[in-house]
Task: structure prediction
Amino acid sequence: MTGGMRGATHGWLAMALMLTVALEEASGTPLDAAAWARWLPATVRPGGFAPLSPPDAERMELAFRDTMRGRDNRADWRRLGFELAWPDSATLLIGERANQGQGLYLLRPERTGGVFIQAPHRFFDQGTGEITRRLFERGGVAGAAWNTRHRHETPHSDLAHVDPSPFTAFGRAIAATHPHARIVQLHGFDEKKRAAHDPRTSDLIVSSGTRQPSAPVEKVAKCLKQADLGTVSLYPTEVEILGGTTNATGRAVRAMGFPGFIHLEISHALRNRLLADPDALARLDGCLAG
Result:
């Protein structure tokens, strides 16, 4: 471990200790079924979406950066309308106080890289939020993000396609602090609707959001093709649609020179299989991390 990595880890541990002893929110309550239901309800809660202003997006990105570097920035998160909690000694939760669509975030303090998962359409792309949760619970994921309002609630509430947004702030912070990590965004598609535009059958479409697949995307696609998860197609060489080319997070991190954005489109049948078959989920997890 390098000196910089040790410093970041020690910073995280110090922050965890300070939060645990000083914050009422940091109660050590584990993420059991009740806690997950509180933070990730199955349906959209009453409230209203509040677009993130450009200045607040910049503040949120800086807050994520400081948190990922192990700095104690509780006051910054409070000003942004979030609360921090430590469900256990290894996990930091960042959740909004009001249900205004700014998202839920979980980070693992000891990670200095690895895989970060985003589920921007969990109320629309059924199963993607739960798949993200289960991937995080497996322990190999460094961080995860979920939307908290429906993508179609307003013209600005689709966190995969607007910038500024909390997800682009999260992505930029990852790119700045973990340049060798992977940001994997999960989406779902309807097989029948897809077939009307492209007759080739796919269970999983992998892309980098560009017409030229990146090296990380090619590596992940190669692994997934050998993972017994159905037909895996690489965009655009093997399928011409659902390539994530309008994705705001992908565009934002590529502008920073970050090559690790991976866009996954998952069929309804495969989403159901991943939720029913722990071995299939483990193989997906392994390919994303490998």
The chain has one domain: 3-289. The chain has eleven helices and nine strands. The beta strands are 82-88, 91-96, 104-107, 115-119, 141-146, 182-189, 204-207, 232-234, 261-267.
